[in-house]
Amino acid sequence: QVQLVESGGGAVQAGGSLRLSCAASGRTFSSKAMGWFRQAPGKEREFVAAIRWSDGTTYYADSVKGRFTISRDNAKNTVYLQMNSLKPEDTAVYYCAATRPGFIILYSILSMYNNWGQGTQVTVSS
Questions:
Q1: CA distance 3 to 121
Q2: DSSP-derived pairing of the beta strands 120-125 and 10-13
Q3: How far is 96 from 38, CA to CA, in rounded Å?
Q4: Is the C-alpha dihedral spanning 116, 69, 19, 125 positive or negative?
Q5: pLDDT tens-digit map of 7-51
Q6: How far apart (Å, rounded) are the C-alpha atoms in residues 109 and 75?
Q7: What values do phi and psi take at 20, rounded to 5?
Q8: 3-state SS, residue 32
Q9: 50-106: per-residue pLDDT in tens?
């Protein structure tokens, strides 16, 4: 089991920036990658970004490419999501997640993750 604790959410105006952190503990070696997802009120949870622990390969949703950057600190077992040029449509609860053991078809698929953080609210006002 992997325990995940997110931090860094908050309220900002459009065009502003926030950095989210996700600290992982427990059986982190069983997870190949970490991802960030978000869920807005009344909408399904959607993929934002992912990063592989081993080589740092990153993946992004089209909606955040060029604005968000995912990174990791292997020594601290921590993943970050730097969010710049925030828009009101980025408002959501953001969750970090760790992939399940075994083959990963696509890092953007929600079912590839079996450990989730509690979520952190991000609110962007216009």
A1: 19
A2: parallel
A3: 9
A4: negative
A5: 999 999 999 999 999 999 887 778 899 999 999 999 999 999 999
A6: 26
A7: -95, 145
A8: coil
A9: 999 999 999 999 999 999 999 999 999 999 999 999 999 999 999 999 999 888 889
